[in-house]
Amino acid sequence: MNLRGFYKATGVCALIYAAISLLSYALWISASGFLAATSTLPSPDRLLSLLQMNGNQLSARLDGLSYFFLIPAGVGLFVYLRGRKPALAMTGAAFLAFSIVGLFQSSTMNTAMAELARGAVSDSLKDRLAAINVISFSYMMPGLWAGAIANLLFGIALQAQADAARNIGRLFLAQVAGFLIAFGGFGVQQDVIGNTGILVQVLAATATYVALGMLLRRTENEETNQERPQAGRPRAAGASA
């Protein structure tokens, strides 16, 4: 398979995804505060107030946009691992795909809620937003768990590699640790611990995809150099007859 330009393109997408997702998180906590996520769903009045904040509205739109760069970045990672750890690569890609479906659906609903919150305020609107928020949450949780499993599998696969790939594997595992901290914190209704876990996961994810983007771009250069014929040698048998 000719992958000329493929690794470079997917590497750029990984770098863009890292930047957009970090900016989305920064806007979210700047508008809602560090304890932006809570162990219980917000009241209708609180939810409307959050959705009307400019930072949260922009954050929701950036979050939805980020998946259009995560998908090619994930494909690039799958192709990179396919010849090295095929079983883990295919299983991890399957869980990542399931995660993206759930999280993108949740993100789409969040964007829709942000649009609705810009309209005239009424009790029916608040009830509508609360109902959509429950549905969005029901899509988000399976997506988060599937994403954690994908990160675990990718982390294990990359840990078996050398140098930069091994470090990226550790970053994938750090994302899993951050997710478990957040899930445990919210499970025991400790919002500080839960949001700390989210912060760890976001920072680890940003570092992961920055490093992955650099790795894929470097792989592109290595494969291009391998394809170049050595000086003084014919390109094909019989070419120097």
Structure description:
The protein contains seven helices and no strands. It has a domain of 155 residues. It is elongated, with a radius of gyration of 21 Å. Helix content is 80%, strand content 0%. It starts with 5 loop residues before the first helix and ends in a 14-residue tail after the last helix. With 241 residues, it is mainly α.
For this entry, give a set of tags.
241 residues; mainly alpha; 7 helices; 80% helix; 0% strand; elongated; disordered C terminus
Biggest sheet features: none
Tally of alpha and pi helices: 7
Average pLDDT taken over every residue: 90
**Unreliable stretches:** 234-241
Any idea what the shape is? elongated
Q: Please report the distance between the alpha carbons of the first and last residues.
A: 29 Å
Outline of this structure?
With 241 residues, the chain is mainly α.
SSE layout and pairing:
Layout: H1 6-32, H2 44-51, H3 54-82, H4 86-116, H5 123-159, H6 164-187, H7 191-227
Helix pairs in contact: 1-3, 1-7, 2-5, 3-4, 3-7, 4-5, 5-6, 6-7
